[in-house]
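Input chain follows. Return structure tokens only.
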Amino acid sequence: MTTGGAFADSTMAVALKTVTLALGGTIPYFALRAYRRTNVPALRVLVVGFGLVTLGTVLGGLGRAVMRLSVEARPQRGPRPRM
């Protein structure tokens, strides 16, 4: 990615999660307002769908931060299992 190493990757992840949270919170907010005004069931589904995706993304980011997991793939040790 960048030459900044783990700090730059972590900073980028935090920035992207922040944008995701902002957009993922704004879209359901306005959809919920529209649903309450019009009672169109599709808007309720939109609120729930965006809310779940946003919640999953934020929880995944928090889990990664708490467990200090790396985004990069690590090579496996030893021979590959035969199939």
